[in-house]
Amino acid sequence: TPRIFSGVQPTGALTLGNYLGALKRFVEMQDNAGMETIYCIVDLHAITLWQEPESLRQAIRAVAAAYLASGLDPKKSIIFNQSQVSAHAELGWVCSCVVRLGWLNRMTQFKDKAGKHAEAASGGLYMYPALMAADILAYRATHVPVGEDQKQHLELARDIAAKFNNDFNVPDFFPLPEPMIGGPAPRVMSLRDGTKKMSKSDPSDMSRINLTDDADTIAAKIRKAKTDPEPLPETLEGLEGRPEARNLVGIMAALTDRTAEDVLAEFAGQGFGAFKPRLAEAAVAHLSPLTAEMNRLLADPAEIDRVLGDGAERADAIARPIMAEVFDVVGFLRSR
Ligand code: ATP
Ligand code: MG
């Protein structure tokens, strides 16, 4: 049976991009009979950039609350935080030894996140894709739903799996994981710059809609979102060269389960002064029940911790025997 694995970093409040590009699709796959679904909160990845420890712990619970509020069900999916299952760190090291520096040097996310001072970036940020490969391979996951920004890392995960199978002469030991990129919103863009993706770690809070934002904040962020003075066009071609306009139309389509063409059919000829309040309404209608449910869940952190502990046990039960095989294949002596 297909086994789905994916994760979100507890680096801050989740954004509309995370929700539309990842969480919504996690739920669809969970509810698709015959798929085993494993959803991780990747805290090991989060510390590739420094995190204040108590905020990190809260952020882990907040991602868990967002998972559950979005419709992930611990009875149907395994939900846990990465650091509670040691296979991630263990296989992460093995994958670090399989990956080549030349491959890592091509990763655009490292360049984006390290910025101009790559010398000052952590070793972990550089090795991030090796740990991500390990996350997937530790479960022999076959499919990985992610946003478009993770495409390059997933290709690297496939390369690492193939090189491991080849180096140790164990064909088919690790299945090559299939990226599942798509759905209505694989790449939601920043509200301030239509050429940059919306990110929870962007320094500007105005660049994104957070799942924790209230109705007034959402309306204000959309009102101030960058746009152009042209009215909305009749066809998609009319959005070419207008990244901000295209992004807002795309968000409206995803929120209201329509195609971008259908959205344009409704709004063609209207300016953003008319469109933005309608978009804000759609965003609030969609997100406010989610925010309320997240807050309800966060009022009982002990229950969230229990769900994560239980998920970690189930994840460990899958990963541990696979790790034992990995250690044997690699040639580690194990005598206890
Ligand atoms: P950070 O800035 O800390 O990297 P992020 O917003 O990029 O945060 P991640 O935890 O790195 O979030 O990614 C979680 C999932 O959300 C991944 O599957 C990623 O591809 C997806 N995702 C992130 N940003 C977007 C976006 N703007 N549009 C669609 N999907 C996204
Ligand atoms: Mg990211």
Automatic annotation (TrEMBL):
List positions binding ATP.
9-11, 17-18, 147-149, 188, 197-201
State its location(s).
Answer: Cytoplasm
Q: Where is the signal peptide?
A: none
Q: What would be one Pfam family of this protein?
A: tRNA-synt_1b
A molecular function annotated in GO for this UniProt entry is: tryptophan-tRNA ligase activity
How this chain assembles, per its entry, is: Homodimer.
- What protein is this chain from? Tryptophan--tRNA ligase
